[in-house]
Please model this.
Amino acid sequence: MTLFPHWQPTCKSIKVLRDWSSYNRGAASSVNVSIDSRTSEAAASEARAIPQFDFETVHFHSGARDSSGFVANVGGSVSALDWLPSATDRGNFLAVGTHPHDEPTHRVGVPMAGKGAVQIWCTPNVDTAANRFDEQMFSPSSVSMEMALLNARGGVWDVRWCPSALASDSSASGASALPRLGLLALALGDGTVQVLAVPDPRALKQALAAGTLVHEGDAAEGSTTQALGVLLEPVFTGRVGGVNDKTALPWTLAWDPRPPHNRLMAACQDGSVAVWLLDKPRNDCAELAEAYPVHCFMADSLPLRQAQWAPATLGNSSFNVVVTCGHAGNIKFWDLRDAHQPLFHYPITRGYFLSMRWCPHSKALFLTCDDHKVRVIHLMGMHGLLPLRLSRDHSPGSHSAVAPRPILRHCLLIAHQISGPHCMLAPPVTSPARVVQ
Model:
């Protein structure tokens, strides 16, 4: 059974631009990256020039095992990325959101304007037993940027695929319908949240070749990228506050991990949390109207960096429980049915939180902080969902995100294994853009 079967990409809702360079503002044509290549014989550091939207393969040796990966130039400061939850016959798809390269700062709480793009990359499948990409598939054409999802809403703060494999639909009902790669939620710079029904790039190219879909505009002079520039009509658009509310800007998003995945949550830059019901009945002329949250409450006095749903592994009692963290240095557990007071509050004495993820198939919550530490909370019991034990801090170095799969950062891919093969730590890369408050 396909999730949200009425959210299907069609040729009528898609525009493919020949020249989308205006959506790729100020991006450098190439980036010089110093890469430490460690083999079983020696360790060496070399500088490589990586063209825009291109990549370099790297090989590492750690102990008795060899690893491989890739370094990609995505053309700007990375603000968001997320893996499509299910691999395809072609490999894994990765959504990468970038801020405009020509803007030196991105101020918290201030809406952004202008054009931007979310890149969709395809990478080879991973040999999990050998902790490396499939070497037979790792050819110069095995990693590629397939398409750019264009927008005119000030760039993107976060991207999140619907976590269910049922969001992908290889069938297409209707003459103009296209197979759906997945459902992608975006937190955009102007304060809106959108959900896109992303078409399969291969089906998109087949439609262009067959003439059922045509390019618009003229080709860009001197352009070498084969990626498609695509404008999609959103299947859902939400906003936290009124049009004049300039502070309630969504920063990060989280889909409900439980079927039918019909709740979408945003952590906002004013300290609030918003939850939308995606299958809520809409009024007349609803398709283009902006939806407002069914839940909205203040979780902290400073910007929130992350809000996460309690995982389904915690049982039915956690259906309405969410966890927040952010610049105030507080971890708070909330019950959406009564969000006047948190269920549990754990502050840190110094610094603030950057990101938060649940470790798959466990009851551990991993949080990264600006003091270069990873904090781990274990839920020892289900009564009240209170974290009864805080583990020792892990300090492998500077980092900004925790995720259950290897993380790609702007021009660098490094993952430090900290707690089993499913929990990876990715350090950031210095970029010309920085977040200021």
Remarks:
- The domain at 308-437 is CATH 2.130.10.10 (Methylamine Dehydrogenase; Chain H).
- The first strand starts at residue 14 and ends at 17.
- The chain has a mean pLDDT of 75.
- The longest helix spans residues 201-210.
